[in-house]
């Protein structure tokens, strides 16, 4: 991420040492927005081509104390970008190519605002980077679903600006003798291009490593000709041909797309209420516990059978149960991550009719209609958010649960699963014991960032166990069997269950949150590396280490000194 | 043409392998160019491109030769040589001020250390950027002014225009020399780009906005040389202090030539005002275009425009880069060595003005973050001098009217005032108030056209167009009516 180039202006003094680290200045972030409220982006639709234009409102920072000069961005700018990506997919399904461009002259985007980063606490920086990374992955996911993003860089794209372009399928740079693409984080700020920059340059665009090395250490970057030769961009055109050429790229992307969609679904504001530490959505509820530093999250199953066909699902719009759930869960994860850093353990439960869930699960898996495919892809993205969430995730499976197919994915995303064997004799001795049901959806419909299903990740390197789990597809599996198959961590009867769960949660809360975050991230992602796992693993981990090192964040570090008129002074020992 | 000078003697004889062009002969220099074959080869590759550029985008009016000053040495006296020279054969030389072997860095974190004779790797990117930005402005003004020869108010003024043009060309050479000599292959690529970007070119414009505006008439040219070249003077003044000695010495010598450009601007506006004042005095009232002169109000509008766009060239009042450049020793302050402070500035503060709730108020800011403002303040003080000089003409004519510099916030597109509308006398205005008065303050299309209509060429030696007074003296002790320019036959047609 990064780098505001020339003439960045300071309003709050140059020490960069105070700021969002003290909780008082951090606002409660609301992720809901809509095009009529955008301050930084505009969206234009022309048939099958959309154009999104970045013109950052300098005075529109999410937190006071910095100005968003030169199209630099903060979380607020990225929240709008995320909203755009969602609306393009649901409200404008007919769009097959999205051109991303800038509304300023000569500067497409200067990246994340450095003054904002320098003032921010470590937690804020990490959350911000994670969200921007997820949004960029979402842009790639749009391209994979026939809505191809094209970066039309009508000026310099520096740092995070270039990283935004890297998320697009094609990058076109203006050939005007001045405009460049660059990753100036290392030479200017002593940090990494942490929203995918380093990874995508070599892994996605296949730039040779020696050239990538030159590129990432040369603050001013490279102009069109070299950028094309090295693969940093795909094409470069002079101003006089610009619009025509960009339109040509968009038309070609439209022609390639196999997407079919019409009559979008309006993303009307999400219903959410917050009171007394409880956040409520339709089909989702979260109760926070400050003392336990945990959140109890209950996912509620559908209250009616799946609509009979795709047209009926479309007619339900955002009230279509899987869609409503995806939106709620998406919003909840973002809120809790950003606004509730102290709540380190999330405990997931489900409540509902398994049979009803099964109908929706099949409908989504069968797809065959743009809306069903988009809802499925959205659920896949939300589940991926869980995978990269730095909280301990615990699944509790009790009578009344509806862990079937897609909902079982939530449980499989958790670090541990606790299942009640039998029923709570004192509460409801006549209840039906909990069961969970694997479906074909658990076998590849909702892949993780590593490209594997959560089931395959769970049994990585244990083909026979994976096969034996597959034998149970479609049939309810009760606690003892589930433990035997390996789908739950522990099956306990009601004598032990409550106590065991309390101890587990208390014990969890006593461990080092840093160690837990590192441990969980290592355990969750087995198997092959992908661009996504490298970004959330290797790149992010190194970045977060560097963020904490004195060379970046110490009083004389490059990031802290940025804007003071002095460069970072480094401890030159290699670690 | 071989240049000989009593003090420096003839240019040194070439050594090394034969090249088709004898550069040590053709490029007057004091950098021992003939001893550096690598650099010679590099410049050999660049020179034809420069000449192509000069032919394509240099002065349009065909001339046989022009009475030009050519730099031939760097000493206090006798550094320049005057002669009639065909412009395309002008000897664009490379001159650096004399080296002081004991020179130390006078500011920033390296204060007291010896100056650098090579580029430190750590500062390579920043230094190259500074040089490229400076270098980009030099040919830009030549391009902006290329059509002016056709409307020159006199042969004397035409000569001054061409002198400015060739010297801007030499300043480009100076920057290109630094790029070639110290920045390797990337430096050479940047040097080529300096010729590929062109003023006002849609596809490849010049880097700074003010250098993509067309120079439409001679009053604007004078205002440009007064206000915009003066920005150049101040930028050079800060680079002159650079810890990178070759840059410092290059800029020190460039400042010498820049003085002539200031002179052209100061006297050009002065003579315009003088003529207008004459008419006002004779009429006992305002002068109008119908009187064959430029009305004082229009001169004020031109002044307002050029001053405000030149103020933008200093960048934001508060700048991270300026502070970094200073602390790293790349770019000092104006008259750095004469300042009475610690030359490190870590704990210093200063006040700056900005707009809060419709009022212009002061606030305290760290000095290191406000070095652009520091330089701009020096510049504004210098600009006041010229205005006083021009007002002297009005006073001499017994007139009450005066020219004034507009407020620092007037018509700004860069910095703290960019988001506000400020009147020339410093009032914060609403958008409506601004729109209602802007045509009083800035030249309208109509008044620019009226000025352009006055711009009829006067090619007879010693004669001057009606809107401008003759100068008191000529160039290099030659009379005013001297044959400063010999036009080519086709130029006379």
From TrEMBL, chain A:
What the entry lists under Gene3D superfamilies is as follows: 2-enoyl-CoA Hydratase, Chain A, domain 1
Please cite one Gene Ontology biological process associated with this protein.
Answer: fatty acid beta-oxidation
GO molecular function ontology, one term from the record: lyase activity
Q: Which InterPro entries does the UniProt entry name for this protein? A: Benz-CoA_dihydrodiol_lyase, ClpP/crotonase-like_dom_sf, Enoyl-CoA_hydra/iso
Composition bias of kind Low complexity appears in 13-24
Recorded hits in NCBIfam families, A to Z, give: benzo_boxC (TIGR03222)
Q: What is this protein called?
A: Enoyl-CoA hydratase
Q: Which organism is it from?
A: Marmoricola endophyticus
The beginning of the lineage is: Bacteria, Bacillati, Actinomycetota, Actinomycetes, Propionibacteriales
UniProtKB/TrEMBL annotation, chain B:
What InterPro entries would the database entry show? Answer: Aromatic_CoA_ox/epox (IPR052703), Benzoyl_CoA_Oase_BoxB (IPR017635), Ferritin-like_SF (IPR009078), RNR-like (IPR012348)
Which biological process annotations from GO are given for this protein? phenylacetate catabolic process
Q: List the SUPFAM superfamilies.
A: Ferritin-like
Region annotated Disordered sits at: 1-23
Q: Which GO terms describe its cellular component?
A: cytosol
Give one GO term, molecular function aspect: oxidoreductase activity
From the record, give the transmembrane residue ranges.
none
Q: Which PANTHER family match?
A: 1,2-PHENYLACETYL-COA EPOXIDASE, SUBUNIT C, PHENYLACETIC ACID DEGRADATION PROTEIN PAA
Task: From the Swiss-Prot or TrEMBL record, give the protein name.
Answer: Benzoyl-CoA oxygenase subunit B
